[in-house]
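Sample entry (314 residues):
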Amino acid sequence: MAKKMFNTDIFNLKNHLDGMEPEQAETEQQADGGIQQLPVAKLIPFEGQPFRPYPIEKLRELAEDINANGILSPIIVRPYVGRYQILAGHNRTSAAKLIGLETVPCIIKGVDDNTARLIVVNTNLNQREELLPSEKAFAYKMQMEVLKQQGKRTDLTLSHDDTRLDTAILVAKNSGDSRANVFCYIRLTNLIKPLLDMVDNKQLAFMVSVNLSYLKEGEQSRLHEYITVHRKSISLDQSELLKMHSKDGSFGYAALDEVFTKQPAEDKPAKKKKVQISYWKLKRYIQPDTSPEQAEEYILTALEFYEQHKGQTV
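Predicted structure, serialized as tokens:
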């Protein structure tokens, strides 16, 4: 029967992969059958895992390291339809194929689907130095979904929102991100792929992307088309306006034109200031029957005279 792991075991899985004392490692290997050499041809990837494979240059560097030093961290797999499904070590397996290795060291785990998904996610979150926003987004979403399923018994006493909060706290605690950030990252999974790619390529700021995730799919497509054709970038203020248009049902090309042609407040020309002078302050200088136009001309003439003669001794 497939074995289940407690949540804390999964989040501490990194301790099973490195940093263990020899006695502890030996006990772990005996429990799961130890390290075995398995044919590379029998290893298959985990479908739907959220992490992108290494680019070819980075994969070649890894292959060179494996060629020189071997595979230091075994591939974690589970039996799957007559083969072995990779839970941790997709890039190591690809690098091994690149240099023609026929077998690789593996640890076989007899785990269920949910535990397998958590192993896939947590080994990558723990071991990768750099993660794309989209990778973290789908990884956190996968963690939340699995942890909620594993914690269904708590749903008898907790509301849906409380359960989400509880799992979010657990994900946040073990990821190093705040609970709020966990939810923000998960929001990114609602973006269409072209916009999500822009997030990964740093063409869209994080909070701008979170705001855009509230747009309907069709609205996101129209927005992407608009900013591509018109070569527009999106500010935080503009993303908030777009979110508001989507919420009140006024999103459309007219709204896009309004948002992107509206001049930012800091770029607007300063309003002309009006100077008003009380009649009672001027009455000693002008006649009572002087019109406003005559009074203005009189004042301007006096100012010109002052400008010409200021600093001169009278």
